[in-house]
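Replying to the earlier thread about multi-chain prediction with a worked example.

Input:
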Amino acid sequence: MSGIDGCLVNCSLAPRATPENDTRDTSATIVLDNGDPTMYESYWSKIGNKCDITFNGDNSLSYFANGKRLCWFLESKLEEQIKRLHNVVGNAIVDDHYIIVGTGSSQLMQAALYALSPADQLEPISVVSATPFYSAYPEVTNFVRSGLHKWAGDAITFQKNGPYIEFITSPNNPDGVIREPVVNGDQGKLIYDLAYYWPQYTAITSPANHDVMLFTISKCTGHAGSRIGWALVKDKEVARKMTKFMEISTIGVSKEAQLRAAKILEVISDSCLDPKMENFFEYSRSLMTDRWKRLRQVVMANAIFVLQKYPLQYCLFTKDFYESHPAFAWLICNGGEEEDCEKLLKEHKIHTRSGSRFGSESRNVRISMLSRDEDFNIFLKRLMAIQGPTNGN
Amino acid sequence: MSGIDGCLVNCSLAPRATPENDTRDTSATIVLDNGDPTMYESYWSKIGNKCDITFNGDNSLSYFANGKRLCWFLESKLEEQIKRLHNVVGNAIVDDHYIIVGTGSSQLMQAALYALSPADQLEPISVVSATPFYSAYPEVTNFVRSGLHKWAGDAITFQKNGPYIEFITSPNNPDGVIREPVVNGDQGKLIYDLAYYWPQYTAITSPANHDVMLFTISKCTGHAGSRIGWALVKDKEVARKMTKFMEISTIGVSKEAQLRAAKILEVISDSCLDPKMENFFEYSRSLMTDRWKRLRQVVMANAIFVLQKYPLQYCLFTKDFYESHPAFAWLICNGGEEEDCEKLLKEHKIHTRSGSRFGSESRNVRISMLSRDEDFNIFLKRLMAIQGPTNGN
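Result:
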């Protein structure tokens, strides 16, 4: 475990935790329950003023970006930089797709459900995703008890006797696995959530080319606070309905967030093309590789936990083989079926999200790998200190 | 009509239109259908760099603004400036209210409906507003066919045999009238939409102090492109549910938009307190007064149209009497019950919104008073040229 020790010694924290010397037991719980992507802050601090953007008082007063375009609130600079980045990375076909911008991809999930739900049906359409599925899908589908769509659970056990919508998250949240549709019914409509299909997380094996694809700047660059997502949509009528949803829901998307996102994506594309700049994806890939290596070492040295494994795949972007290093670790507690892994980790002041939230078992947890270094180091230290299930649980 | 002529001559356009000399008949339709508040651009251009805000690459990456607060995504700078502005203007009590920020007030309307709809009911709660009501209310209430709430139309004719939610828009959109609740049932929950309760539109007669009040920067300062609204909410549980809605719907609100809004509100408050600055509300009030004076002159000189009248009221902010100068003109065509005013104006290349969209008659139209000067001048010129209903309509 010298590699891990080395990392921990090199960080700003106290030496390796034991029950005797770990004064941090009295410190705050480390929150790795959500995927707040603060890890990328270090890149953006180093980039200096290349990414600065200034707004004057008289900028962007209007609701409209371009009233004549289908997505009338989409800033043309953002559209341009979204297209450019997908072409630079090679992770999606953009040229024959409409782009719809959203307040994060959550809003676009709802817009896609709205657009793909048949308007003339009496019963709400079933919405499914294979377990373990992103914990927000059931909530996003059902929270206002829509008569258009209803959550129908696991796609694997779904009885495909009628129309349905399937969410395909690839790489998957929470477990990082590359996915395909599983229902394969003849009345299915598919929403591809590709939030994590970027080179720091997985090999780019081909440009995605589906009817509805969702992306978000949060997981690509780390700018979650901007709330910018985008949908690539093939069918004009679906794109029009999604735009209508955005219009009723929020009358478009913040112009400041869009223009800043355009700047950020521009700098990222530049960093991939200009050898004088530090390539964002190489930088973030090396951070992820290091974190996963250290986590795997801790887990291997401990009989209680098991981690998901990933195949090595050829990445067309880096022209090299790469094993997935997902944004979340999908940790399995080996303490038997009854084990509550979230509870166990919480006792050690690590706040994670239970597998039960993802339609899976409570012996699994999802752990964010995107925290700041300090928190990640404390997390590893606390994980290392866990000896086994506490009595009485 | 010399005053109007003078204005038109002083603007950059050709002299008064007649069928003979109006070359602009071949030009584009003037869009006054929506309330795009571009009129205020002139103030913000004059303000110079006082309102500039710069974002660096490493700003605002996190989803969170303050994870310990009820509204965990609300930037504290924005909260501070919202409170300060309401205290400076005196139009709302803020100190015993929670502040929830939204992506415009449209999203907060939905959040309020979500929070105020009983969770345990079998039937959706009725949502009403007195005609003429804001045209978005039916759409916002019904667009995803929610099982929580349904649009029940005009509050005046509503049978109050059970729970209901009433929207009270004051000053009202579309007609600028000051409003009170009209149902007055014992199971009613009220949402006050106070988007236009600012000194440029109406006298500030007392600080509003209701359970749920909605405001938006769009109509206050003109920054509609930022999509920033806020709710002032008395009850903690309602505030918590509204925050939950925002969390599921869009995981919060763009940090860039919030921080820029904070800056804009700060400058506006400063402009009210610093005699060396041009007071924003005095400036915008004088623009509105001038536009309304010119519009009334055109309408008075024409037998076809009638405008809503407003009482003179004492304004606590300016310490003077003021007649309302609403953001929209509510124009009535005097051509009889059958008259379609939207159609008539469209023939003269003025795009307005029919009264039928507001639960009212099609002989009424709503016309935005907030366009850029050029468009407002063309509007007046075209209105002046209308001689009466075209044959065959």
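The radius of gyration of chain B is 22 Å.

Feel free to reuse this layout for your own posts.
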